[in-house]
Amino acid sequence: MIYRLINGLSDAAGFSQRTGRGVFRLSLETLIVQSGLFDANWYILDNHDVRDSGMNPLHHFCAFGDREGRSPGPAFNSAAYAEAWADVASSNMGMLEHYLRIGRDLGRQAPEFSRDFLQQCDFREKIHASGLFDVQWYRDHNPDLRDPSIDVLTHVASFGAKEGRDPGPKFSSLLYSLAYSEDIAVNESALWHYLYKGRDNGFKPFAKSDYGAWAHIFDRIDAEDRDLMCASAAERGFPGIEIVHVFDALACRRASEIFESFQNQVLGRWNARIIFADDVSAADRAAVVARAANEAGISVVADLDEGFWRSLNGKHVLYIHGCVRLEPHAAYMFIERVLTASADIVYSDHDRWNDEGKRSAPRFKPVFSPELLRNGFYVGPCLLMRMTPEKSNLAKGVIEDLRLGGCDRLSDALLAAPHRSVAHIPFVSFSLFDQSPDLVRRRSSAPPLAAATPQPRVSIVIATRDRIELMRSCVDSIEQNTSYPRDRFEIVIVDNGSVSEEARAYFTGLRGRAGYKLVNDPGDFNFSRIYNRGARESGGDILILLNNDMTVIEPRWIDLIVAQCLQADVGAVGAKLLYPDDTIQHAGCNIGVAGLAAHRLVGKKAEAVEASDVTRELAAITGACLGVRRDVFELVGGLDETLRVAFNDTKFCLSCLEQGFRNIYIAKPLLYHFESKSRGLDDTKKKLDLQYRESLYTRRQFPSYFKNDPYYSPNLSVERIDELALPPRRKRPWRSASKNFRPRIMFLCSTLAVGHGVPLIIQMQARGLVKEGFDVIVAGPSSEKEFAFDGCRRIFVAAPLTAAIIAVRENVDCIIVHSPPFYSITRYLGACPIVYFSDAGEPNPELFPDREHREYVNREKRFCATAADRIFAISQAIKDESLDKNVSVMPLGNSHMANWSDALIAPRKAMREKFGWEDKYVVFNVCRFHAGERNYKGIDKYVELMEELSVSDSRARGKAVFVLAGKAHPDDVAEMKSLGLTVFPNVSEELLLELYAASDLYANFSKWEGYNLGIAQALAMGLPVIASDIPAHREFPINTTDSMRVAIEKLTEAYLSFAEGKSQRRPVIYDWEAPVSELVQIIRADMNVVSEQPAGQPPKNSEAMRDKLDEDVKRDRPERWGLARFFRGMP
After folding, report:
1. Of 124, 256, 909, 915, which sits 20 to 30 A from 335 (CA to CA)?
2. What is the pTM assigned to this prediction?
3. Does domain 219-433 have CATH number 3.90.550.10?
């Protein structure tokens, strides 16, 4: 044993050994190097632990890797060698050593890897060498790969690229696929295409953060857009726009580009006046004056006299400062927003541009946010004001400030204006030159802290159940670290059924102490009920709901919360909370991210974001520390006790917005939060199920906010906070504003193949919409044999995210989703386009071997349905199954189907003769009968009926033939034939019609159907029908039963009637015209409603209140999206 150990170590070190016979034996390292089978680079790439360790790969292989079964390179498959030769296991050698010392001499071949594996290895090497792969980034952005034992480089080569996962921040598979969709084959991933083809052809890789690419896709204005803008402006009588542009020195030097942007305005009614800033030289002034003299509509203001100020009265004035270039749609957008939102002041998003014309640094802004404005002039150097005579002095002050590079008067005007009169455009309407400075506010606009005397009485409500160590720490921290006068706040502790002796002793010690109140609220944990009880028992004017796992950082924490609460239009107030390691736990919430709400800035160091993260309005803040005036709390009804654990704070905040209040986030860190230490994490199935149901409830209460958080730009991602939105969630207002507008509808379905019922429904609905003048797109994955969609555009897409991007870029106005996975499209869209769910129902997952996957699909569908504008069930049965209250029935028809007539008598006779059925009673069933679906389709019952009939009645014995038609594989066909059925697999429409004509009775025993198209066709062909007794079947005028005895009796009766010549075929027809006509009317009505709502604005409440407010793409194959044209000419 000792000799073997020494021998192994010396071999690994590269020494030669003398054998007992005096013959030198090559060291293992030398032997392996001479074999040529070891590839150091390949070995490093194939073994991430070696790569990470920095160890010499050859030394590692010789010392460890060979005996561990690792392959040395692409030319030797160690696993295959060990599997092929049993003597390796007992040799005390590694696989390669055994082959080189023994196997090779015995004539054994070095086992090779498969061609696919070697191609994968080559791909992996190219990825590694490309510089596009970032190990840590890939782990961070893929939670399923956080396990350090997973080789993420191999993962991206083997799976990730095919799934559409990005290798790092420098390469976006999605953007690359969109740009070059016409060049990428179906079986090629974006990353593979770039590394093997695109790079050599000069194709550009796009980072996911590539704003230039994003703007090129989503912000381009094409000829159709221009035409619609011009038409709508003319029809609506848009007023002209007066541009007052204060030129600084930089603007003077780029005057030609600025003037060109004026001349390119789609809205032709404009007039531009140039005023020089105080620091502009005489030479620059002269150059601009000379250039302006040759420009129509542009003049330089020589004197700011009273005549000039009077000329602005009654005008819509666009004030601009500095080197600003307008986008072509800018004037249109500003005027459109003034008119639609009845606004007096309008501002928009903007970005920057440089000498090369590249756009960058977008500033995506929220709806009007006074608190944010007080902490920085976020609106930018271009905004429109509707001028009136009383604003003459304001105009003078604004121009005076702008000439000095300031914005104090603009800021004052915004803060003084009624909030409803200030509107925001969620489009980039102008660009600021890269080197231009931002406007500077020379004095503070921060509101003073409340000066009320005495200071308002505050009630701090804290709930607990045992966990006294947390409670004591929290209370002691408040007592020791709070500067607010102790006689002006009370601590209300709500005990939710503590049982420990420590808790009893602690509470006993607090009873009777000044400034404390103890409230008992035993029972199940219900956060809302507990805190509502505490609020009712408290006496403060200001409530602060506080978790028990908090400690104080900032002594003035109560003062800061109270100061915000005392603003009359403020609802909930929250603050920055830190983890104990001083990273951010909470910095307010963005609604709609990940379908629900997400904390901002989580995990970042507080000091790292101190400069950019300021006190501001946000849609929601956490209930872990929530301040609110008592009157506001009572007005919105407190916390919703339906929400026992989660989202009660979110719903409370949204209720405040709905009532017209602003919710304020204080950017200063006020407390530490030891998150979920008292209740624990939501990590059990019971807790997760409750969280799911509570999320559904919350989304249903305020669907508009989950589609459009007013304080989170629709241009920012709902997948990852503050990344670019793919796609943006905003409405192009010119789309539906003109009489020239032709509504565009997109149907989405996972299959459009013949043999499936849903594509047939789409065919009928699309046909009706085309007839009514709609522009129709039919989208979904490619199928071998598809239905024809005459007059429609066909787009191939497989993932919901990609479908959402296409819908936005193609200016789709309404999406009608007919099947998973496309129901998930609502995760990525805002209020426009409208989304309808057509629900054909889903069978019970228990009927299938892939139960868990089907359960997930059903949950996702139900979750996403909360954001659908309408849900249509295809039958009453589906409506009855739905848990959503807002479902209406959009019935199907069968008038499109072939129906029985005398013209089919001859084909029926010929068909029966062809198959020897002249004297037979033909029972027919149509359904898919793959192995995974036979159970739910009731094939076993159909076979049982055949078998029982043969022994139940002598009159029918031997007279019936049971026929089965539908989609299936060869092994399915063989099995069905072995059971005695006559099988017609994968039939054409023509043959299927002949089979219906040749049949005498239709029988189907599905355990579930949403709507049975086979029965609908049978009725159209005048056949009697026997079917299982399920809700969908009961809607037809047929015999339904789950009793085999009754089924046999009904079948025998039908046969005897046939044998006696008494049976007659009477078609039953349901017309399509009425449901399709209803769909058309609904779409038009809903589009009118949407067109009246300003995009990017919060919803409106009463007159008294102001405005307020995966995996999928990973499996997508972008075959022919038609979007590549949007990248042509991109800088």
Report:
1. 256
2. 0.86
3. yes
